[in-house]
Amino acid sequence: MAEHHATIEVSDGAAIPLRKDRGLFSAWRLSFVAALCLFAYLVIFKQGPYLRLLKLLPGGILVTFEVTVASIVVSAVIGLFTGLGRLSHNRLINLVASTYVEVVRGIPLLVQLFYLYYAMARFVPVPDIAAAVIAMSVCYGAYMGEIFRAGIESIDRGQTEAALSLGFNRTQTMFYVILPQAWRTILPPVGNESIALLKDTSLVSILAVSDLLRRGREFASESFLYFETFTLIAVIYLLITLILSKLVSTMEERLRYYERL
Amino acid sequence: MFKKIYLLAILLVAFSGTAWAKTIVFATDATWPPMEFMGQNNQVCGFAVDYMKAAGKEAGFTPVFKVVAWDGIFAGLATGKYDAICSSVSITEERKKAMDFSVPYFKVRQALVVRKDSTAKSIENLKGKRVGAQISTTGHFAVKKVKGVEPRSYDEIGLAMEDLFNGRIDGVVCDDPVAAQYALSNEKYKNALKISAVIETKDVEYYGIAVNKGNRETLDLVNKGIEAVKSKGLDKEILKKWIHQ
Predict the structure, then answer these.
(1) Could you tell me whether strands B193-199 and B171-175 are parallel, antiparallel, or unpaired per DSSP bridges?
(2) Whole-structure pTM value
(3) With an 8 Å Cβ cutoff, are B136 and A214 in contact?
(4) CA–CA distance, A28 with A17 (Å, rounded to integer)
(5) Which of A71, A78, A72 lies closest to A248 in space, CA to CA?
(6) Is B184 on the interface with A (CB under 8 A)?
(7) Domain that holds residue A66
(8) pLDDT digit string, tens, across residues A181-212
(9) Are A224 and B74 within 8 A, CB to CB?
(10) Which CATH number fits the domain that encloses residue A176?
(11) Is residue A107 in some structural domain?
(12) ipTM of this predicted complex?
């Protein structure tokens, strides 16, 4: 049986600039330098509205970061258990995990945010930041679950068989033998999902959470400086995601120590 | 054959009817009852809509309403997506720098809405609490001015009222007719919310129609219509219909 699968690796995260991908690597450098220069030019030479806006933004960036970091942690935990659930031999657990993934993936994140914050408020009035984190984590937990599942499945079956024959039970096999190996496959796409998550946190501004985007919108509609505001906001988001994608690529290259031999 | 000619004649009459009068496209954020909102048959209706229709009849223009989200409504005017904004825009000095305003068509004050059990008598009583408003409305500016109150900006006033109803915030500041609509006549909210104070700002606010700087043609037509509605007393009827005054 000829095993040749062409894989198309496109996700909604960011283009990860790996060293082997020359074109993308220089594209990353180009956009990073350009974004940095544009940012410096606007803030140092143009000043005026840009500087005024920039003073309002640190709090917003902090909120964006808080929501991102908390959501990444929680969604990774949810993802791990969902991935394990999807592979479980227990019919019920498998069904629950699979249904969760199906339902969550079929509802737009924006609708989930509205639902959790406004529709559910009648039963549990969750505070805004908590609602944002829960909605983002539940949504991304489903995506992460699929990554975990794929990563665990990529480990050769012989590993499981060997571990079981050595007297490990299934849980021990998973946590001592399979997962430590699967990490290397799982981490890069998880990093990529985190970048996508960071970008999607801009959606939480609809919950009146004063994140980066909402601060910009408040400034814009008061000063009528739409062009200036959204240029600066876009450049800041771009800078953050470019830095993160670089971190993910570094991590990915470090994790490939076996391949480097 | 006759049927076709008949139809053609009807169409001609219909089209020429609208061609005589100039069409003015007004942008409106139809989430601001009773001034402008979506009625039961999904048509924009409300005080401002009737007012502009009456003004159009007097001055000879056909008002067309385009529903636009509040956030970005001014940007859309600047880029020429519509001729004017008729969306309860208070005339302020800041805004006058960016666009031209018609003569005022409604006088407005800012009202503070709280839950029935609240003891707050003014916005200053809500120090350390969260007070909501629609983003970049004069209500939002009023909240931001009060030190110690945490301002929260919503995309729509309805979402702010819902959050107040659910107890996530302790007050909402908005134009008084809108506050009255939610706290006095809305079936869902009238038993839970009340108007606790009318915020006295130094100058009285007026609603005006906003147009791009230098768009005399539209502005003159609108002004002519508003003046005519006022002088003929047509505004009293519209006021009675929507605001019960």
Answers:
(1) unpaired
(2) 0.78
(3) no
(4) 6
(5) A72
(6) no
(7) 28-39+48-255
(8) 888 888 888 988 999 999 999 999 888 888 89
(9) yes
(10) 1.10.3720.10
(11) yes
(12) 0.75
